[in-house]
Write a structure and sequence with these properties.
The chain is α/β, with parallel strands linked by helices and 388 residues long. It contains 17 helices and 13 strands. Helix 10 packs parallel to helix 11.
């Protein structure tokens, strides 16, 4: 098999990855090289190739040479480019400045070509999928997003792990404003790619925050969030867990279809409540719902936020309501609203604060040391959908 590239101005990025690749100075020479080499299985189009030229080349060869994969490099990948390229038959769109990503994209394309030529599946590559952690609270104002953002920072461990923080509160998501991020791309931008989403698509949607930590932000308004369906959430999370060690999902205080999709795929459920009767009552109802949905009890982590607030409830009162062990007690401190207003999680600005130590203890005690869990089938979801 041969690698042929078309990069009239900048050959460096491609030759760094494939030093023996054949170069073409223009589209005519590229077409001649492809025609002369019937065994060619990969064409790499560099970032100076115009999008019309790239999609035209891919479209012409998708039927006449289906085993010829086209990988397109761009200086910057956006959703519009990605959607048009994939429709034309381009297999991968990748950032030109990411040599590891280029190697991986070319390897995936060659695997597809091998299957088409030989009629046999490519050899399986052992992969370890990341863990999905969904943070949920049955009542708004419980500090769920604060816990989720600090948890994501703790899991990233300064870049030691790859973490994606997903804001699934599609109507009123707060992660962007809490981290002072500008949502140029959001989860709603994945709607045109539903059913065709891949790792390249995910990369085009995320907003980096810190070393090892990316974010997938909620839409800026409720109307855009209505376009994000359960199937898209399921597709995003299944791909994301192949790309990241941990995926932390922040949710709205409701069992929506999108939230249920995240819960179905989760290895951990962090249930947040505050020491007041309405919040504790909703936590108990949430636990009852989890029992009905058959989510494993040993994968649930109950976190009591503002645990030391003097609100007239004793520990016995709390235990009587929730009837479940409490795995984390986050203290009440004015440092939390200060950190929110500054847009810097306490795990970043003050890793030794009582709140940060509590979050880190949850990670060290329960998540980082645990093995992956098998998920049981949720046989009763159909009954719940019909409101029975």
């Amino acid at each position: 098999m041969s690698e042929i590239y078309y990069e009239p101005e900048r050959a460096g990025p491609i030759l760094d990855v494939f030093p023996d690749a054949h170069g073409a100075a223009d589209l005519a020479e590229l077409a001649a090289l492809v025609h002369a080499d019937p065994g060619a299985q990969l064409v790499i189009l560099g970032p100076t190739v115009t999008l019309p030229d790239a999609v035209g080349f891919a479209a012409r060869h998708r039927l006449t040479r289906p085993s010829l994969g086209v990988v397109l490099l761009r200086d910057q990948v956006d959703v519009a480019v990605l959607a048009e390229a994939i429709r034309s038959g381009v297999r991968e769109v990748i950032t030109a400045a990411d040599p590891d990503g280029i190697r991986a994209a070319c390897a995936r394309s060659l695997d597809v070509s091998r299957q088409l030529v030989l009629g046999t599946p490519a050899p399986a590559k052992p992969t370890r999928e990341g863990q999905i952690l969904t943070v949920f609270a049955g009542k708004g104002g419980s500090g769920k997003s604060t816990v989720a953002s600090n948890l994501a920072v703790a899991l990233a461990a300064g870049g030691a792990n790859r973490v994606l923080l997903v804001d699934l509160d599609l109507a009123f998501g707060d992660i962007a404003i809490m981290l002072q991020l500008v949502p140029r791309r959001t989860i709603a931008d994945a709607v045109p790619m539903v059913g065709r989403l891949d790792e390249t698509g995910i990369r085009s949607l995320v907003t980096p925050y810190a070393p090892g930590l990316d974010t997938l932000l909620a839409p800026p308004g409720p109307a855009e969030g209505e376009r994000v369906g359960r199937e898209l959430v399921d597709e995003i999370l299944k791909i994301a867990r192949r790309m990241y060690d941990y995926v932390v999902v922040d949710t709205p205080p409701a069992f929506t279809d999108q939230v249920l999709a995240a819960l179905d795929l989760s290895q951990w459920y962090l249930l947040v409540a505050t020491p007041d009767v309405p919040s504790l009552k909703n936590l108990r109802l949430t636990l009852n719902m989890f029992d009905l949905l058959e989510y494993p009890a040993n994968q649930r982590l109950v976190v009591l936020n503002r645990a030391d607030a003097q609100v007239g409830l004793t520990q016995a009162d709390i235990d009587k309501v929730i009837r479940a062990p409490i795995n984390g007690r986050v203290p009440s401190t004015r440092d939390v609203p200060v950190s929110i207003n500054r847009g810097v999680p306490l795990m970043v600005s003050s890793p030794q604060s009582p709140v940060s130590r509590c979050v880190q203890q949850i990670v060290d005690t329960h998540i980082a040391t645990a093995e992956e869990h098998d998920r049981p089938a949720h046989r009763r979801r159909g009954l719940l959908r019909k409101g029975r």
